[in-house]
Design goal:
Distance between the termini: 44 Å
Number of helices: 19
Number of strands: 2
Helix content: over 70%
Shape: globular
Radius of gyration: 21 Å
Strand order of the largest sheet: 1-2
Largest sheet: 2 strands, antiparallel
Oligomer: single chain
Low-confidence stretches: none
């Protein structure tokens, strides 16, 4: 019975738990419930992916209404992969949250924090599960609204401004997306993705369809912080509580990229994207984002803001792979999505460990801390090397496939951009390592101790994962290759 309703349970568990957690008494009970829910979802998502790879597409009809009249959860290798990523990150983030949340968020707000966290989690999972293009908007708003609340809980006053800025940008993006969906519905008469994909080839010449396509792309680009529509992201990541930064950096933008992939390669027919300047535009914006955001990162003095600009650059790599519109390019984007969640999650967790001890994470305040906090320093170093793309780490696999995709099409400028971006990453990661280890310890830091085990263990789970998936690519490359086949993308 559970297996039959697995796809629905994956969304309903955190959605139903959120209001319950909100009314629980203060203390650690809300955290316990959140941890149980996230762990359960990780198990369900793993089972779901295994079922899809073995038996093919799962179709779940909500309320017994057959598609396209009713809402359908349609699970293939692509969204099963993303659901697993979101669930695993949540299950790793929740143990980390115990001490971090108690340190950064007032006690009376902790139950509300976990309630909003579960709502955000449910929204992201819903986006990956649904086969209804309007339902994507509904879950997008659930995750976004809860994200605004989570960011606003940051200690500094700028957290409120950052949340408000994200709210404005996110609302504009959602509005653009909804207008685009409405235009497509006006020409196809359906909101079911599979049904729309079958009907769109008959109307692709219409201006309404092209306009709807443009609106949807702009809306999603705002949500995924594609350069130059990224202005909300640096402040949101910088001033949000550390746990929120970890979770959003590893999941939210990744799910937005999933929606982009689904729209481009599932809903619209083969050849449609190639007939528009979308691919060239993605390549141009990807290259620009990689270079410009990496340069911005170099000049940051706040480590969270530095890593936030780094995330904008990494989104550029993902979009670059999509722009190639080839099997290798799509594989590279999906592999980098997964690997970037591991490396950036580990980096933000390690920075959170520093914040736990110091209450701040500026370059001039962390000098020499590498000797006082050796495990935290080692985590930053290894995850940073993965971000650069050093062989033996997950980041190297991503860069290898991206370069391969560019070489397939003899896109030498893209190859140069990938290499230059990696060199710039060496500079800004090197800045952090230099401050932590090669500068003298300030007098105020001489008594600083290593971070608690509850913070280090989740961090090192992600660090070890960076090494494991750099040596064993069976899951990432295998699923990405299967996903490219599901989407019908062929190598050029």
């Amino acid at each position: 019975m559970i297996v039959k309703h697995l796809s629905l349970l994956l969304v309903m568990l955190p959605l139903a738990a959120a209001p319950i957690v909100a009314v629980l008494p203060r203390g650690r009970l809300p955290w316990v419930v959140g941890l149980i829910v996230a762990s359960s979802c990780a198990i369900l998502a793993s089972t779901q992916l295994s079922m899809v790879l073995q038996s093919g597409v799962i179709s779940y009809e909500l309320g017994g209404w057959a598609p396209p009249w009713g809402i359908e959860y349609r699970i293939d290798a692509v969204n099963a992969f993303f659901a697993l990523l979101v669930s695993i990150i949540a299950a790793i983030t929740l143990p980390y949250a115990l001490l971090s949340v108690e340190k950064e968020i007032p006690e009376h707000q902790i139950p509300l924090f976990y309630s909003a966290f579960l709502l955000c989690f449910a929204g992201l999972l819903g986006i990956t599960q649904t086969g209804d293009i309007f339902n994507v908007f509904v879950f997008l708003e659930i995750s976004s609204l809860s994200s605004y609340a989570l960011i606003s809980l940051g200690k500094q006053r700028q957290a409120l401004t950052s949340a408000y800025q994200y709210l404005i940008m996110g609302t504009i993006g959602a509005t653009f997306y909804l207008i685009g969906v409405g235009l497509l519905y006006s020409q196809t008469g359906t909101l079911n993705m599979a049904d729309m994909a079958a009907l769109l080839p008959q109307v692709t010449e219409l201006r309404t369809v092209h306009t709807g396509f443009a609106f949807i792309l702009i809306g999603i680009a705002l949500k995924l912080a594609l350069f130059p529509l990224h202005l909300w992201l640096p402040n949101a990541y910088t001033y949000a509580p550390t746990v929120v930064t970890v979770f959003l950096a590893a999941t939210a933008t990744k799910v937005a990229v999933y929606v982009m992939l689904r729209i481009l390669f599932t809903i619209f027919p083969d050849g449609f994207v190639a007939s528009t300047p979308t691919g060239d535009l993605f390549i141009l914006l990807g290259i620009t984002g990689i270079i410009v955001a990496s340069i911005y990162a170099i000049y940051q003095t706040d480590i969270k803001r530095l890593l936030a600009y780094s995330s904008v650059a990494q989104i550029g790599y993902m979009v670059l792979g999509i722009g190639f519109a080839s099997a290798t390019g799509l594989m590279a984007s999906m592999i980098h999505l997964f690997n970037h969640a591991l490396m950036k999650g580990a980096l933000f967790m390690a920075v959170g460990a520093i914040i736990y001890r110091l209450g701040i994470c500026r370059m001039d305040n962390i000098q020499g801390l590498g000797k006082q906090m050796p495990w935290t320093f080692a985590a930053i170093t290894i995850a940073g090397l993965s971000l650069v793309g050093v062989p033996g780490t997950a980041g190297f696999i991503s860069k290898w496939y991206l370069v391969s995709a560019a070489l397939e099409q003899q896109a030498w400028v893209s190859v140069a951009a990938i290499l230059i971006g990696s060199l710039l990453a060496v500079v800004y990661i090197g800045k952090i390592i230099e401050s932590l280890y090669f500068k003298p310890v300030s007098e105020t830091n001489t008594t600083v101790k290593e971070a608690p085990l509850f913070l280090l263990l989740p961090t090192w789970v992600l660090v070890v994962a960076n090494i494991y998936f750099g040596l064993n690519t069976e899951l990432t490359v295998g699923v990405a290759e299967h996903a490219a086949q599901v989407m019908g993308v062929v190598a050029k």
